[in-house]
Amino acid sequence: MSTQTFETSSTPEAETVSKTELSIFSEIADHNSTVSNVPEGCVEVNTYNLSDQYPDDLVSQETFLTLASIHSGVVVPTLFLICASTNTINMIVFYKHGLHERFNLCVFCLAFTDIINLMGGFLTYVQLPNSIIMKAIAPDSTTLAPVMQVVQDYNLLGLYGFNWASQLISAIVACERCYCVVRPLKSQTVLSTKTMAGIIFTVCTPAVAGYFVVMTRWKLVCTFDSITGSITFVPTASKFYLQNRQLVDILNGTVYGFALPGFCMTVVTVMTIITVMKLKQMAKWRETTSSAGALSAKEVGLTRMLVGTSALFISCATPAFTLFTAILFVPGLRLSGPYHYTFSVLIKVYEITSLINSSFNFFVYYKFGTKFRETVNKMCHCATTCKSKQTAPRQRDRSSTIRF
């Protein structure tokens, strides 16, 4: 599919947008049409190819389209499967361990937010097959496919806001572990499970709600190209965005683009460094004396596990933070700038690292968490045993039937 830019008529809602204005809409399929007149409900547009529009871009159009196909056809579906399965297991295991414990509650909420964020991604990428089905059924349709219509009507892409909730919970967990290591006795009385639940709810709710506001900026509009005779649905600025441009731009650019990811990464990094240094200091104390304020073996194990997840978080959050920081200092690094394809590729890298961060916590838990590993192994053993018990009677029945 060639990348095109659509110049809409001079209506308030119809701003000049790129077909790849948002990466989340970049996979929407075109609906071919041979109608000579503009269909009802569509806006007539003029198009031109972008292959020669970015001579200074480090990434060519052909390279971008190849990488986009691999990203959407191979990498993202694979990570979807890993993320869905691993976080489901995480939620089950920590629920079994008991949500009355502060640590279990935190990591359970982290897995839950990752699952909801995954749902937002799934709704985005399911639009491609949904569009293909719609094209096969009604190639000249000027209405959105069912899934796309529901996503737009209920602003379900706001579920991406749970990605920021996940980052905030990672920062909260890093702070909680650091406090437990630095003040092991006080942490048992000051930070109760109810207090931690209140903190998570208070911090994450505004982050999610604010992103729902950001995602109301886009509306899918039917456009008709009189030259090629094609009908396409492209994202354009909504009435809400035009009426509240300053608020949405502050939320999208300043809060979610720089401040929030920078804050979370800084907090996780600093708290993790302090935690590691304190653990090393406590290890030296154990070699010389017995300290009453020392952490238990269980607390040390949980802390090491959280250090592992913090390292994963930092490595996955760095590309996004670097990208959003570069945007502030490189004006051309935008979808409408001279480095259009470079920016688009970096966005896809950010999406991949975000999914990796949501998917691979399970492997860190399994490696460093003894109790977690035992519970998972026990669950797998029970599943295998139950399957064997169900299979055994069938085999005996077959044997008896043959003897008879």
UniProtKB/TrEMBL annotation:
Domain of life: Eukaryota
GO cellular component, one term: membrane
Boundaries of every G-protein coupled receptors family 1 profile domain copy: 86-365
InterPro entries attached to this UniProt entry: 7TM_GPCR_serpentine_rcpt_Srw, GPCR-Ligand_Int, GPCR_Rhodpsn_7TM
Subcellular location: Membrane
UniProt entry keywords in alphabetical sequence: Membrane, Transmembrane, Transmembrane helix
Protein name (record): G-protein coupled receptors family 1 profile domain-containing protein
Organism: Batillaria attramentaria
Phylogenetic classification of the source organism: Eukaryota, Metazoa, Spiralia, Lophotrochozoa, Mollusca
